[in-house]
Request: fold
Amino acid sequence: MQYNDNTPWVPQIDYSQADALRSQSFQMDMQAAQAADEMRWLESEWKRIWE
Amino acid sequence: MTRMWYTIPHPDTGVLQRDFTICSWCLANIETIFTPLRGTFVPASPTPCPATCDLVWTSENKRCAAYVELLSDTAAATADTGLRDLRKLAAYVERFARIPECPRDVVVKRPCYTMPNVPEFTVCEECYGETVKPDRQRGAQLAAQFNATPTHLPDGFTCQLYSDRMRRVWQQAIANNDLAFLRLRVAERRTKEKEIGAKMEALRARNEMLRAQAYSYSQMSMIQWQHAFSLNCIANSDLYSTTTTHVSIKFSKVYAI
Reply:
């Protein structure tokens, strides 16, 4: 990289894509936890009403 | 597992109850907790043999709880009277140890009792022995409609008589000799069982898919982060250049900031 006066001293690191992916991963985890909660609820309802 | 297993001799015949075996660790615990029972258990065979421990504790293993309760009662009675009476335990072992435990609402492929008039009313061997058999012996007409021998269903079965609710339904049907009532209740339960089973399966699949996606996104995020970080390193790599001019200029800029 050739230095000149316009070279930013601290180049801007673009973490936005990494952040977006991490955020999506978090959302997926939350949705998976919600599905697991629903499973537990269904199981308890089955036991409560039908056992 | 092949190792030394321990069992009890039948109190009347002295025959070893080989369908009921426990491991040496459980034996040590029993003899420590229930001291009046010391010496009750004997090796199931003189040499190591394959078997399993019947006192393995799981939340669904109600038979283990029953064994421990019977052992506790026997120990208390022995302490009171000085006589070790194993007949209750032996009777329970004779009745249940040979048959597998009730599968409850889990589909299993093994023999079950069925009723030709209500084919959906599948009952495991344990629940049959606990509930239907005594009714059959009493002469209840509905109980007599069960096939006398367990049959193997190709798709497996779930037990329809393990819950208190269905046992109440069964008792009511027996009391009124009401086949239509039994058929209706069984159909109602089976419909609900299938509905909930399908929902559970869909939720399980969704959960697994979402977890896999979450993992993949997190890996991609990590790669992106490393990529951005590497770009930054490359961009700053001339900082360590041997050309002193560049370094000095750069440092001068740093100090200026």
Observations:
- DSSP finds one helix and no strands in chain A.
- The mean pLDDT of chain A is 83.
- The helical segments of chain A are 16-50.
